[in-house]
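ingest -> validate -> predict -> emit
validate: passed (alphabet ok, no gaps, 241 aa)
predict: started
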Amino acid sequence: MVENIPALPLAFLAGLLSFLSPCVLALVPAYLGYLSGCQLAEGVPDRWRTFQHALVFVSAFSAGFTIIFGLPSSFLASTLQQYESWIARLGGIILIFFGLHTARVLHLPMLNRSLRWDWGVGMPVGVTRSMLIGLAFALGWTPCIGPLLGTAITLALTTPGQGLLLILAYALGLAVPFLTAALMWEKALAWLSWLRRRGRWLELASGAFVMGMGILLVLDKFSELTRLMNTFIPIWLWKIL
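emit:
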């Protein structure tokens, strides 16, 4: 339904902010270098080789996020549709706490860790290794990007019929800057360094985004945001999207 589609760019934005989170942003050069088989000290890796492996990597973690979180969210949203308003309010309260944690106003230890999966470690450079590293990323970094991923999951739980698309939109928001960095390696290193120096502002922006989504859900005002977005963006464009 068109009135539900504005949730898609919000999920995409959550994915983009996940890429900009300190725990992901700082490791992007190392990830890309490792995928291409080139150590950072060795110089600039081959652009297309890096991009090909990055494409496999993001495809794998996108599939992982969609299967692990998209399918259950879609199923629960359809099954518990009669409780949608309660789920929205509960999810909104959780998102407010997540947002406070992201902005470092509140400390939630469980969201300050990552799970280490060694899939692909020790294997020769290749498609299989890049795929396994992507799947390990989807599983291992979930606690770190949890607040923003939780925003996409909450939107999926409260938008029946859109769960898979919303989680896929989130994964795409995380994937696009990875691929851009792989294609523009030398410029990307400068951009990433610039962004890391503004990490505190990115944390505050991400926290405000998560809390904002939570407040809208708690107050049952998400439809107001939908109407606002539909005011500025033509319906025909939403249909294309």
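The chain has a mean pLDDT of 81.
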